[in-house]
């Protein structure tokens, strides 16, 4: 199969393998840390979690990225990206250790959230840097395949990290502090893995003109006019980002619903609820893997917009058919579907952005990409908080999400018909 052959070629590229190792270790640590947060906020026996409480937690952890993300892009287009991975992961290892101490001391929730925010804030630099660095270790012709393998492998690593976190929690009699310390160790290993890459290998390109940092920050603070204009000149990338933001909104709303179902509707026992959540994560991971395998072929067959339309159209039909049952088995099938749809859409969108945006703007655009992701997720959580009952069963949420998926499918089909054809990716100058 061509996809298997291309994957084999990619894995023979030494620098690609090294960058992938940094991603896998970093995102597995993210998975550990995120499960630790989820179990502390949602599944602690002493806490009576509501959809509003989940939305508030997501807002605290994600909304600040709307401020950090654009500034991260300005710095990513100046700092050696290898150094971002090194120092970013070292910083997160230290901060995660501090968070573990706070859990042991039973501090007020607000102090815990502040500590958690500092850990997850650094994540914006690392993830945006990983996406921006990928074209520096892979030739343009294999970029779609690289975008299938690398981010999807990272997502699978995060899922595996979540599984490790649940296992660690079981072995330590429910100790969230021990789980967070496991994440700190993985962050440290990711920092060490980044040292296998040459300092200047991952860019940014020093030959391209950069305005002074103070001026760039001022431009960013005034509204990221330069970055938005750059996107406006590249309509294919802007449209793909808009579609991905809507898909992310749908994913966020259904995630909150699934959390509430696991917590209250499907079991009264904390351990059982966590086990069901673990199964849902595994089903979603299987969807991510499937997307990685079929997306390169699907993009070649349908084009990027066409594949986005197929993903959203499939979700339009299958999401309500499975979700309206509110039963564990169909919802696990829905988790698989959403994993496939979300990751398949993301691979196509990542490739569109990477091939449409100049290297000197790539860090900023991927930071804006992260901002859209986080705003969409928080908005979805807020909507779910208003619509979801305590047990998570809401016909309104399921049908609203189906309508949004349908709107994306129609828009992508029209844009593909009007402008995009199945075309080879153009090389960057």
Question: Which short descriptors sum up this protein?
Answer:
16 helices; 0% strand; mainly alpha; disordered C terminus; Growth Hormone, Chain: A; 429 residues
Structure commentary:
The chain is mainly α and 429 residues long. The protein has a single domain, classed as Up-down Bundle (Growth Hormone, Chain: A), CATH 1.20.1250.20. The chain has 16 helices and no strands. Helix 2 (14-41) packs across helix 7 (143-171), helix 2 (14-41) packs antiparallel against helix 8 (176-194) and helix 11 (235-265) runs antiparallel to helix 12 (270-302). It is globular and about 60 Å long. It starts with a helix and ends in an 11-residue tail after the last helix. Residues 420-429 have low confidence and may be disordered.
Q: What is the general shape?
A: globular
CATH architecture: Up-down Bundle
What's the total helix number?
Answer: 16
Total DSSP E strands = 0
Q: What is the makeup of the main sheet?
A: none
Mean pLDDT: 82
The whole-angstrom Rg is 21 Å
Short summary of the structure?
With 429 residues, this protein is an all-alpha fold. The protein has a single domain, classed as MFS general substrate transporter like domains (Growth Hormone, Chain: A, Up-down Bundle).
SSE layout:
Blueprint lengths: L1 H10 L2 H28 L9 H12 L2 H12 L4 H25 L3 H25 L9 H29 L4 H19 L18 H9 L3 H8 L2 H31 L4 H33 L1 H20 L4 H29 L2 H29 L7 H24 L11
Helix pairs in contact: 2-6, 2-7, 2-8, 3-6, 3-15, 4-6, 4-9, 4-15, 5-6, 5-8, 6-15, 7-8, 7-12, 7-14, 10-15, 11-12, 11-14, 11-15, 11-16, 12-13, 12-14, 13-14, 13-16
